[in-house]
Amino acid sequence: MTAEATEFDVLQSLMPELEAEGYEVYLHPNRPLLPEFLRDFTPDAIALRRGKNLAIEVMRKSPDGERKKERIADLFKGHDDWALRVVWIEPVGSAATPQSQSLSLIRTRVVEIRELARKRHFQSAFLLAWATLEAVGRVLAPAQLQRPQTPGRLIEVLAMEGYLTPTEADDLRPLIDKRNKLVHGDLKTRISESEVGRLTDILVTMIRMAGK
Q: Longest C-alpha distance within the chain, in Å?
């Protein structure tokens, strides 16, 4: 795969997640869409939302990439309504490929999710459910999901391959923002019993598909 194709795939995978967070995303934006302070730098994508806009740059992990990030970050000083988000691409062959999990282990995790929910540990149940969702997705669609996935792309792939119904995909998309907040340290994010229950029901349906 070429570097250009890899960067395009990364940007495409980010779009559903950003759109679920309320952003309007533009890949390779035209100059009129950029603020004046970015006229000498065109990011790979921008995501616009009231109060906070993002400039997204895909870079390969290297010392040169780190230096480039520092130079670009300087442009954003004094512009609090914009933030730089760098998405790193590991050098070819360096990214670890997650191992496929057995259905027996996946079923065990569902039991644990239900037990956590029974004890009202909804945040813990929710995060374990997301991890299990990706694991069972990798069993169902190993070619498409062999590498770590953003939650947005995970849902889109599973829906496109027919493992999620349109209603199920629609139920999951609003939960992406909560998943991201929790993963990134927003420990006040509230997760309801019904949200864990819906995610668990979808997991059980997908496990049945994988077991056929």
A: 57
